[in-house]
Amino acid sequence: MSPQTAAENPAFSGPAFARIPPWVRQKLSPLAIEKIQAVHEWVENECIPREQIMKAQLEGNRWKTQEVMHELRQKAKERGLFNLFLPNHFKESPGLTNLEYSCCAEIMGRCYWAAQTMNCHAPETGNIELLAKYCTPEQKKKWMQPLLDGTMMSAYSMTEPDVASSDATQIGIRITREGNEYVINGRKLYGNSLWNKELSFYILMGCSDPGNPDRWSRHSTLIVPCDTPGITQVRNLTIMGYDHAPEGHGEYLYENVRVPVENIILGEGRAFEIAQGRLGPGRIHHCMRLIGQCERAYELALLRCTDERKRPRGKLIGEFDSNIERVAQMRLELDAARLVVLNAADTMDLLGNKAGKRAIAQSKILVPELAARVIDECMQIYGGQGLTQHTPLPEMWTYARFVRVADGPDAAHRHQVGREEMKTAAEFRKRHQVYQERYKKFAEQYGEKYITFA
């Protein structure tokens, strides 16, 4: 679509496209335009109005997926809104690029669980892409297709309580081969709760070759069915006080858990290759959903600012200079963050996930921290009610704070970006030496004194 045609397209006049930058609109296919509009209508009309229904259906049975969730997932599937996240280079993909899906993900983020109704939620997205990328045809048929169909639920099990899991080479749960089986012993944190009986299997990363001199080749990835004997959920983990039912997070003990050798993914010692292939797109999804979440928080702040009932000292809350500046700063930061993430998605489409790793890391560093700060400001504008269940703001803030740690803490990503940047210094040094040499020649040419501070 040419720039002129894109600008004139009447489809872009609606709220679904209001925040999408012009350069991204020019790259959207007709299919993407259709899906973005459909996702917007779905979230606004089917999800957000059901938020309180979803909460009410948890009462009395917190670890059973709500009936309304099953109802919505079936409807979304019938409307062609399932699995939109899977990039178009996979044969199972519905046909969107990473950039196009990012526009959908932002809209999904406006309601915490909206992505789940479309089978576009973590950890399912990362797990499905992992299985699509690395599994055998037999494994795909047994484990991936049910996830795509929405008849199974999965979780990713990596973090451990006994080591610094931010350095994943320290992951220590032992995987030992005995004949035609792998035996697993150790402890894990996170991964969805076993108390929800719809959870079907874990994709588990563990240490299979601790003596390997190459620490990046010591680990393997296995598919572990949740009903395998020897897995015990010690307790559910709360996140900042929330139990995150009905999915939750767990603390797990593995005692002589046996799985068949055909459950290994890609082969022994390949876990880091798999993990990197899984995490790139997932980080972009998290970040775009966070931006959508922030946009909704921002809207709540604007409503509070212009609420005629709220007039401290005779003025609307939005008439105080400090709040006018708060609103302006939030708007600037959200629009800037969106550009960073969309750039990462576009880089992945054009050059691949590996080439886009710096842009992906930048997104993962910037967006969760910014989101927590923006939502915090919205709570402050909203006042005391903004800290209660009267608004979704506290849960939004908790999710943003969680994502600073999920998929790797931002400190690790800062370190990665910083190291890569340090490597560029050598070329800059050469360039600056040329500046100095040319300056010396010009000083001689003009008869000026040559001054150096080196």
UniProtKB/TrEMBL annotation:
Domain Acyl-CoA dehydrogenase/oxidase C-terminal residues, every copy: 272-420
Top-rank taxon: Eukaryota
Gene3D superfamilies, A to Z: Acyl-CoA dehydrogenase/oxidase, N-terminal domain (1.10.540.10), Butyryl-CoA Dehydrogenase, subunit A, domain 2 (2.40.110.10), Butyryl-CoA Dehydrogenase, subunit A, domain 3 (1.20.140.10)
Protein name, entry field: Acyl-CoA dehydrogenase family member 10
Family: Belongs to the acyl-CoA dehydrogenase family.
Native species: Phialemonium atrogriseum
GO biological process: fatty acid beta-oxidation using acyl-CoA dehydrogenase
GO CC, any one term: cytoplasm
The entry's keywords: FAD, Flavoprotein, Oxidoreductase
Occurrences of domain Acyl-CoA dehydrogenase/oxidase N-terminal (ranges): 37-150
Protein's UniProt keywords contain Flavoprotein: yes
GO MF terms held by the record: acyl-CoA dehydrogenase activity; flavin adenine dinucleotide binding
Pfam families: Acyl-CoA_dh_1, Acyl-CoA_dh_N
Cofactor(s) the record lists: FAD
Entry-linked InterPro entries: Acyl-CoA_dehydrogenase, Acyl-CoA_Oxase/DH_mid-dom_sf, AcylCo_DH-like_C, AcylCo_DH/oxidase_C, AcylCoA_DH/ox_N, AcylCoA_DH/ox_N_sf, AcylCoA_DH/oxidase_NM_dom_sf
